Amino acid sequence: MDSVENESTTGPLIxxxxxxxxxxxxxxxxxxxxxxxxxxxKTWLACEEHREYLSRFLGMRGFLKDVVELDVWRSASDR
Length: 79
Ligand SMILES: [Zn+2]
Description:
Number of helices: 2
Helix content: 10-25%
Number of strands: 3
Mean pLDDT: 89
Bound molecules: zinc ion
Order of helices and strands: EEHEH
Shape: globular
Largest sheet: 3 strands, antiparallel
Strand content: 15-25%
Distance between the termini: 30 Å
């Protein structure tokens, strides 16, 4: 997992791709079955440009569970 920075929980929502400072518009929900319980969801944020790259990165490892627009993700998790 050396291609992304650690996710931050404060401040503006910025793309998780390393070196990218673009505002995120997508949420990639993923789970590593070796580290996480099945219902656990880690999230990466992605700008339009990096959505495909980060999706592929997680998808290749079988970790990717969902790709959701940030607005949708926020309203869905606002429970
Ligand atoms: Zn980006």
